[in-house]
C-alpha cells in the first residue's frame, strides 16, 4: 500500500470511502452512472438499495426501492406489490427500464431487476 493510500485511508471519512467503493463496484458492471441518467431513455443501472417502502398509489400498494450507486439515486416503483423476495435495504441489484423524471427525481416504473451478491463483480 502506497503512503498516499495509507494517509487517505485514515483521513478520508468512512462514508466517502464507502461511496467511492460502491461507485467502483457499479462501474465494473458496465452500467450507467445514476448522475448521468436522462429521462425517457432506456437505461441499465446498478447500486445498493437504501430504502424500501410501501406507498399507496390509486388505491393499490406499490413497493418503492431507492437505489444508490455512490453518485446518485433512482427510485424503482413496482406497482401492485407489497413485497418482492430479496429486495431489502443493503441489497445490491441491477435495474433496467425507461427512466422517468418527476419533481427533480428519477424513477423506473416496473423495471426488470437482477439481485447481485455483495462481493466483487469480477
Task: Kindly describe this structure.
It is a single chain. By secondary structure, the protein is α+β, with helices and mostly antiparallel strands. It has one domain (3-116): OB fold (Dihydrolipoamide Acetyltransferase, E2P) (Beta Barrel), CATH 2.40.50.140. The protein has helices spanning 3-11, 14-28, and strands spanning 42-57, 60-68, 73-79, 92-102, 105-109, 112-116. It is elongated. The two termini are 21 Å apart. The mean pLDDT is 89.
The CATH superfamily is identified as Nucleic acid-binding proteins
Number of helices: 2
Q: Which fold name corresponds to the CATH topology?
A: OB fold (Dihydrolipoamide Acetyltransferase, E2P)
Query: Residue-averaged pLDDT, rounded?
Result: 89
Shape: elongated
Beta-strand percent range: 35-45%
The helical percent reads 10-25%
Under CATH at level 1, the class stands as Mainly Beta
Distance between the termini: 21 Å
- Helices and strands, in order, run as HHEEEEEE
Spatial order of strands in the largest sheet: 1-2-3-5-4
The largest pleated sheet is described as:
5 strands, mixed, barrel
What integer value in Å does the Rg equal? 16 Å
CATH architecture: Beta Barrel
Structural class: alpha+beta
